[in-house]
Amino acid sequence: MNVVRAAVPRPLERRLLLAYLGAFAFVIALFAFALRLVFVTTLETQTTARLDTLARAGTASVTFTSRGFVVDAASLGGFSVVPRVEGLQWYNAQGVLTATRGLVPQDPLILREGRAVSRVQGGTIDTYTVPLVVPGGAPGNIRGWVRASESDDALTGATGALDIGIIAGAVLAILVGAYGGSRFARVAVERDEASLSRLREFTADAAHELRAPVSALAGTAAVALREEAGLPPRTQRRLQTILEISDEMRRLVDDLLILARATQSLEREIFVIDVAEMLQRVAGRFTGAARERDIALRVAPCERLRLYGNPDQIERILANLVDNAIKYTTPGGSVAVACSADEARVRITVRDTGIGISAEHQERIFDRFWRAAIARSDGGTGLGLAIARALARRHGGDIAVESEVDRGSAFTLTLPRRPPALS
After folding, report:
1. Could you read off the pLDDT of 335-394 as tens digits, one per residue?
2. What distance in Å separates the CA atoms of residue 75 and residue 81, rounded to the nearest whole number?
3. pLDDT digits (tens, 9 = 90+) for 169-186
4. Are 401 and 365 in contact (CB under 8 A)?
5. Where are the beta strands (DSSP E) in 139-261?
6. Cβ-proximal residues to 375 (8 Å cutoff; 6+ apart), any chain
7. How far is the C-alpha of 280 from the C-alpha of 291, rounded, in Å?
8. Nearest 5 degrees, angle CA 339-CA 341-CA 346?
9. Could you tell me how far CA 272 lies from the centroid of its own chain?
10. Which of 152, 93, 147, 94 is nearest to 119 (CA)?
11. Which domains does the chain have, with CATH numbers?
């Protein structure tokens, strides 16, 4: 288990944890918002009901006269007013204060029924106003107003306590979720990495075991062609087909073996690489193929750059890119290889004037076994660019592509001067 854990990609574990925490925090925030909304709405409704009841009680202490009304502030229909937190005020039809009991708002009366917020010395209070109408009289014959008031300290205190509880609960839930999420992410990534490791081992083992029968098959066909000179032409064509298919199978097996080993550590495979010398060597391998297709293959002068890595694998990356450029460049076109560098990285660009790649396919070309319809008759396996990118990333680098249909493509290999294994 320790070996598997060492291979766990920490960035993937962090991304999984952040995604889990993001979703968890969103649910917590949504729940907290809904809880606070329901709680505050309930308190507001209860406060409105209390104020309305107190205001109606204030109307019971009014005796109507021919010119208005008289207030008996001591009589509230069985209700009492706590002067420190409650109040009643009676106003005439013009909104002039005529009597008070308990809290008195500083704001003038708004001549309409309903709830409002008013100021008192040191804070605010909730108020509720009802009209004074003569019993049995016309509804619009308002003789005055009664305003009930209540300190909002209780509502503010309850809301503040709820906010503190919600924040504390949310923080605690997120901390617990972070702990649980980290363990979940670790277990999930370890499990996936173990499965991928077993799959890579199986692929490597299968590719290794396939080498022998494929080689035996090719060897048998070659010997038959060489030693049996009198074979009928049809049999010779069949044996030649077996040789060609065996060669394709051998290349596919080798590619699968490279991909299976592309995630292994580089620590024991690192050597100093002369970039200019390697570029010249790769160009020499493909000069004949380029000449046969009437394609100009040029390598720009490159300063004496050096980097660390596996020379065979980096040469394989460059060979795949140059081979791909020649393969998809029409006769009369050109392929140019250039390099540049800064203090930390080396960049090698392979640019062609070929058929180009459509925008929707520019990332898919790096998928294993994927090939565009135009490339399906080239005899390849669809693993070249997948191998190139896998090996580049094994060295801590990557491959990027810029392309335009019918105008060509540019593949840029970026590699650190010193791979992660040496950093």
Report:
1. 999 999 888 899 999 999 999 888 888 878 888 666 654 544 455 556 778 888 988 988
2. 11
3. 888 888 888 888 788 777
4. yes
5. 142-151
6. 328
7. 16
8. 75
9. 38
10. 152
11. 13-160 (3.30.450), 271-422 (3.30.565.10)
Locate the DSSP E strands across 84-137.
86-92, 97-102, 114-120, 123-133
Lowest mean pLDDT among 63-67, 141-145, 174-178, 211-215: 211-215
Residue pointed to by tokens 């109507």: 64
**Burial of residue 88, with CB atoms counted within 10 A of its CB: 0-12 exposed, 13-18 middle, 19 or more buried:** buried
State the Cα–Cα distance between residues 7 and 405, nearest whole angstrom: 40
Concatenating the DSSP letter of every residue in 316-363 gives HHHHHHHHHHHHTS-TT-EEEEEEEE-SSEEEEEEEE-SS---GGGTT
The closest alpha carbon to 345, from 411, 270, 420, 277, belongs to 420
d(CA 73, CA 66): 20
Q: Give the list of residues 6+ apart from residue 125 with CB closer than 8 angstroms, or none.
A: 87, 103, 105, 117, 118, 119, 149, 150, 151, 152
Residue of 355, 346, 303 lying closest to 328 (CA atoms): 355
What pLDDT digit, counting tens, does each position of 218-258 carry? 788 888 777 777 778 888 888 888 887 887 777 777 767 76
How many other C-beta atoms can be found within 10 angstroms of the C-beta atom of residue 21? 17
Confidence of residue 279 (pLDDT cuts 50, 70, 90): very high
Residue type, 86: E
Q: What is the pLDDT of residue 338?
A: 93
